[in-house]
Amino acid sequence: MTTTRRRARVLEQVDTGPALSFDERIVALADVSVDFERFLSYVKIDDPNDPSRGLFSWLPWQHLRELARMLVYSGIQMLCILKARQIGVSWLLAAYALWKAMFFPGSLVILLSQGQTEAQELLDKCRRIHRRLPPWMQVYVGKDNTDELEFTKLGSRISALPSTERAGRSFTATLIICDEHAFHPYAEGNFAAMEPTINNGGQIVSCSTANGVGNFFHKTYTEAKAGLNNFTARFYSTFARPGRNEAWYQRTLRNYTGRMDLFHQEYPRNDEEAFRLTAGIPYFEAEVLERLRTGIRTPIRVIEPTAAGIALGGYLHIFEEPSPGERYVCGVDISYGLEGDNTVAQIINWRTGLHVASAVGKWRPEVAADLLAQWCEYYRRAYMGPEANGGGGQYFLRRLQAIGYYDSSVLYYRDLEEARRKGRPPEDAGWITDGSNRPLMLDELEEALRRGFSVTYDEFTIGEMGTFTMIRGKAQAAPGCNDDSVLSYAIGWQVRQRVRWTLERTRGWSNMRRRTVGAGTHAYP
Predict the structure, then answer these.
(1) Which residue in 71, 113, 120 sits closest to 92, CA to CA?
(2) pLDDT per residue over 243-272, tens digit each?
């Protein structure tokens, strides 16, 4: 059968509704060109898992209508979607790609998938939607093959590309859809090549089911939730699809006996379940993490730092404002401010053990020192314990010294007691994490959280705890994940145990003097 006859046969099966006059068609075209939801009312799809259904109209499920509006009207340039399987999102994105190419002349839409076959399948969805539109709505097609669908007279095209090392380079696209992004072998490199699209006002949609933790999609989604990148994160659970209930869930679960990790990735009820660890032994008990997750709160205030009007990135999330009757400590894990690790500071109420504020950002050490000195000052001159390991820690401490946040009343010194005995200023500022104290400090943090001596409401910190694991006897982040929040929390908890305040009155003024206790001492509230 020729392509023309096959196309005509498909069109014969499409219910295009009552015939429209020429003027009515003009009005309808004007409507769908500006209203994506109106366009969707003309879309016909099929269900490959149930061929007996044949063609049916696009189903306006609530989550799909929300997503359709978000794509068009929200102004979001970078969207990261974590989803369950078979909830209609791929068909919606195919329709969106087609709508962009048809009604925005000169558009270049890139469909980036794990491999060539997957890219061609997504493009084929665009093609099938176009062929099933009413004949008067269809656009003249030029090049039409497995890799490209071109609308010659409009100067628009949709290209299907696999995720290769050079995919996306030399293109400035109107829209890039990264389908099943968690499975792309060159996701990080491909994203770097997409920068011109963003800079020229284009849109990137990263969409995927989960594929473990540590990959580019996982990091993009978790950082988007924490406000650490420019993506907007959205999660659509397995129950987003109408008709799915607990009975359906349990029935489907029986098909995955012995493969629970796969089941949770394919049909997650929440994003923590989707990203459940698949390697190593979780360091923090599931019951502890679940208790913390149920207590997650939105920060009461968010500070986004700037310098000379320029955003520095990162944030300070405040969960409890400083109180005149309280004292605070701060643990800091320092990075160089480049790609990869963040600098993270966790501020803890010394008396209650509550984690009251969290600062996260990819700041240079000297910038981090300026910001954290200000924020610790705000928290009633919080006693800071920055990790002194490596060059980053030393740059950080040097900057603290330059700006005056350096004496033993505000900064942890390892040799403070010895210096006092010898009558000299302390010299060894900062916390050193090494093989001898790392297991102990992590164990004590785990115990504090398990027994309720410390509590955190911070979603980003709790998320890192969920990917912190024991691998070959060592407590560490799962491959590809970060542990900065966990380590800074552990440092803060250690510093909290080593500082005591004694009231002292001098010349009528009441002030607080810190006294550091020996390294083996340990006192919970």
Answers:
(1) 71
(2) 999 999 999 999 988 777 788 889 999 998
